[in-house]
Amino acid sequence: MLNPEKEKVEKVDAAARCKAGHAAKIKLDQQMGKQREKKKVNLKMFKLSLGGGKVEKMNLDSLKQKFGKTESWIEILKGETVPVPREEYLKDLKKYRVTDTLERMEFKLRKAYQELIETFQLSHEEAEKFLKGDKVEKMGETGCKEDSMRKLYDNYKSYRAEKGEVLVKEAFLKLGLPGIVYRSVEVQKVIGNWRQLQEGSGLVIPRKKENDEFDMIAIFGKGDGILVLLCEVKVPSTFPWDKEEYEPNQKLFEKAWEQLSKSHNFITGLLGDIPTGALSIHAVSAFPMSTKVILEKVVDPSCCLRYVICKEDLAPGQLMSKLGITPTKPSEEGFSHLQTGGSRLSCLGSLHLGQRETSQAYHENIKRLKKERDQVDSDVWQLLDDHQKEAIENMVNQMQLSSMEKDFGRLDLSMSEGAAGPAEKDDSLGGQNLTFLTGAAGTGKTMVGGEVVRRMKEKDTSALVIITNMFLTDTAPLMDDLRGKYSEVGEVVGMDTLLTRHGVDMEKYKTPSGKYDYPALLAAVVENIIKSQPGRRVVCMADDMVVWPGSDWQPLLLLPAQVICIINPGAISTREYQSLPPDCLKITLSLSYRSSVNISQLGGNLRKVSGAASSLPCEPATEVVGDVPRMWDMGEVVGVLCLEYLLQLVMTGTPLH
Hints:
The protein has 657 residues and is α/β, with parallel strands linked by helices. The termini are far apart.
């Protein structure tokens, strides 16, 4: 039998062990446990000033109907989860340059840290103390250079915290529930210019501070009601050289619970007229950069841990279980309540204005890409991780890659300790001379491959270098771009020309499923090349080779060791990645070059805006030329989609076929 007294004692003991701001959490629980009564609202019409001299009569029902005509609502009715904002421009928010990646900030911080220690004879603790903003006596009065080091650390902390929020937002989106996930909800922007309608209708929204901002509010349809997830995200401050993960301090938890208390008051006021039984609210804090092992040292597992999301909880399939959510398809009534919530959070206010709908984000993305292209072209700095450095070092056989071409920018290829030596040679490739470059659109796969080819040519000037694209003809604009960069290294030629030149019939490599076996096709071309060039080293870079599970890699693996193949299969799925030969070098790029994230998002938006693009078999390739980016589908759809032309069609309302 249950012993109430024993349970009470156990709860008190757990609370005593818990260092997660337990008192603040108790207050939040008490607040959320109070019985809520449905608010009576009136549907009187009010004149609202919508800006630009536009005035519209509206009540809560017409506001709801207005939201029902948006792209977001149409997507939600299809069962999708809509993000607001549609896309994240973290660097714009913080006024960073597009080239200021987290990796680059870490690189600069390490350099600044060492410089402080060497210049001022500081201990490691003193250098960290200075970067945090504290005064260090032995340094005396500091100048602009030292102050900029502190600013760099502030930027690093801030950007890392924003990235943490985005990680949680993405995990919420992957729950796959029909609804909306809002990040960075500013009360003032939600209230916006419909305050008169709120107050006149009888909604009571507590706002001690109108500049309050909540990290995450998600509203999902569930059965006859809605589920609201409130989440505050915390990322403990750290340094990139820290070898150990540190425990979050109690203040971080206290701030999270206190902010959740405010967001609970806000959402219950905003949705006060939704029946009590139809509104379920969960409140959690998230520490996306902290592991469960570390959090358990601070948060008692039997106390508050179930309300704290850790790094492991963001893994696919884990968050639903952590939150205790049982997916239930929304009924007509559930969708109605969901429409109410969406209309009040993002229909009239200025919250993420211009980033609430796909088409808005699509137009904005094109403008930003031009700005980012200009910044990147003037400051390209590619940082490779240890795995990439080791793989490239193997590819160029311990070649020193320190000096770079002036027009190429700076590429950090310094070796890490313990890097692998040269690959052993045998009578066939056997995986040793076959390398794959994978990653999202714009991460620099072609750039890295081209640079490796350039270095190989410098080492062996007699090598025959072929740079080809599996789908573009010689006259394609992207091929002209490749020629401009690599024509002095070797021949840049379309695969169609190589097939004709070497008498290879593409149709012989068509599989029963109707797809082409591109690895076998490339091997046939290379075989004919080495027959015409006996004994000569051949370096072949194949750009944008589509990889299907079940592709036959054996012909490439059986090529003689004089052949080196560098293959860029583009952005591939986990299943496709696993189908690559196991003993080959594989380099996955996840760095920002030409704003890879935005290019990938632009591709996704293009598919949504254009019905014709929705069935493209793979991610489009991209090129930034002139004022607008152009995109080529690298699958079996032939043709060029010019975004400038598509944009004109969308803006004029012309149907896309």
